[in-house]
Write a structure and sequence with these properties.
22 strands; single chain; about 475 residues; mainly beta; 8-stranded mixed sheet
Length: about 475
């Protein structure tokens, strides 16, 4: 079992894997090299000590247990977005294993799966007219685990997983009539928390039909981001009002869909998100009120109180375990409270004096269902040591996609507050060693970003010297 002391040292860990091990008699799956057209599916994420959100449960991981493969035929060889859907297939209850402890040390846990393309797609030598055509193949990896009586994989997700959240288990599911219309969308009636508990992978390959006989690799990357926070000394009262909880919130209603096919930025404008970009903030100023339901639409995660003790507690399964030392002495350690969630990519904030993310303290709802914002702190992006190491850049964070906000504003101040939320990136508000002190009255807090979630084998060392994040 992964213990949370490792999480304290390495700021979490990435989902292992690479997909897939499955029964060889399932349609499309192959133990050996298929003679016909085929692809090799690979989830691009090793179990390296890299940053990761910590969800409920002792294992702190969602496993990819289901994979789907869809084919789209191009009308224009140079435009994947207009390619038309021709067919799809899914593999359920994929059974793979991972050695968590070994992978944490060296990141070597890897499994792949060859998939033979079905004859019904007619991408084979019996249909020579299709050999010269261009296709885009879309692979989707999701969790389809269910609650088990023994409390193992699945039991911590309260019956929720990414397969159900995005409707992938619907027998008639089709991502979209074209690649450009193919989105993962939270199902109607499902709460936003289903997004926050669901990890989702996707990858695409654009290729000539004839090239599929030699086999090509489809790498699947996360189409979600991770956001996590570390906090200490959360006040129980502000101006004589009871604090119900701390929340980390997006500046407007968060997106509920994401394109499977990654969108590139256009003229410095971040485009890789679903839905329409917000144009005005929802989070009011301190001492103002808002409907609790609207706040829920913006909320990424919260830290609330224990029902028995009234003390603020970490998200279940995310607790940091360290030696507290002797109470009242110099050895006593204030342990950060922490929580995190998966979120969908989102554009940066727009408008004067607005930031993409906030940390807020809120009251209990009143009789009209309105809550008061008791404290509100802007979350500013801080140039990270890891980002520059990856991009070999002196003063930008090319690897994170955080160069400009939604408007393409390149000024430093604008960059720091109007950053987008980028898929496969991991955002931490504070660190275990430098948590956000909610008792000091400051108005701004720091956000660190890892540009490649599966990236850094020496992240634990980097985290131990947080000042390195602040180098400009």
């Amino acid at each position: 079992m992964m213990n949370t002391n490792m999480i304290y040292k390495a700021c979490g860990w990435a989902l292992a894997v690479a997909l897939l091990t499955a029964c060889s008699d399932e349609p499309g799956l192959s133990d050996g090299q298929p003679a016909g057209p085929h692809v090799n599916l690979n989830v691009s994420s090793g179990l390296q000590p890299a940053s990761r959100t910590i969800l409920q449960g002792e294992q702190n991981a969602q496993h990819v247990t289901r994979v789907s493969l869809y084919a789209y035929k191009h009308k224009d060889a140079n435009n994947a977005l207009t390619a038309d859907y021709i067919g799809g297939m899914s593999f359920r209850e994929v059974d793979w294993q991972q050695d968590i402890e070994t992978a944490m040390k060296d990141g070597t846990s890897t499994q792949q799966q060859l998939v033979a393309l079905p004859e019904s797609w007619k991408i084979d030598e019996d249909h020579p007219q299709n050999m010269s055509a261009t296709y885009t193949l879309l692979a989707i990896g999701s969790d389809d685990s269910k609650i088990k009586d023994d409390g193992t994989v699945g039991s911590e997700f309260l019956g929720t997983n990414s397969t159900a959240a995005y409707g992938l288990d619907n027998p008639s599911y089709k991502p979209g009539e074209t690649i450009g219309e193919s989105y993962a969308t939270l199902q109607n009636g499902n709460p936003l928390d289903d997004i926050h508990r669901s990890e989702l992978f996707a990858g695409t390959l654009t290729v000539k039909g004839s090239a599929l006989y030699s086999g090509r690799v489809i790498n699947l990357y996360r189409r979600v981001a991770g956001v996590k926070g570390y906090f200490v000394r959360i006040p129980k009262k502000v101006k004589d009002q009871e604090v119900k909880e701390l929340r980390v919130v997006y500046w407007a209603a968060q997106p509920t869909s994401v394109p499977y096919y990654k969108r590139e930025s256009e003229e410095g404008k971040f485009m890789d998100y679903g839905g329409d970009a917000a144009t005005s903030p929802l989070i009011p100023d301190i001492d103002k009120t808002m409907q609790a339901g609207y706040l829920d639409k913006c909320t990424y995660f919260k830290i609330g109180r224990d029902a028995q003790t009234g003390e603020f507690v970490s998200q279940p399964g995310a607790e940091i375990e360290v030696d507290k030392g002797e109470e009242g002495t110099d050895e006593e350690v204030v342990i950060p409270l922490t929580a995190g969630s998966y979120v969908l990519p989102a554009p940066g904030a727009v408008g004067d004096d607005v930031t993409t993310l906030y940390v807020v303290l809120v009251s209990e709802p009143d009789a009209q269902g309105r809550v008061t914002i008791l404290d509100k702190r802007r979350v500013f992006f801080v140039t990270s040591y890891e980002s520059r190491a990856v991009t070999r850049s002196d003063n930008t964070d090319d690897g994170t996609g955080i160069i400009v906000g939604q408007d393409g504003n390149a000024e430093s101040q604008e960059t720091e507050r109007r950053y987008p939320i980028v898929a496969n990136n991991y955002y931490t508000i504070g660190t275990p060693q430098e948590p956000i002190d909610m008792s000091n009255g400051e108005s701004d807090v720091k956000l660190y970003v890892d540009p490649r979630w599966e990236g850094f084998k020496d992240l634990g060392t980097i985290i131990e010297k947080p000042d390195g994040h602040n180098q400009q």
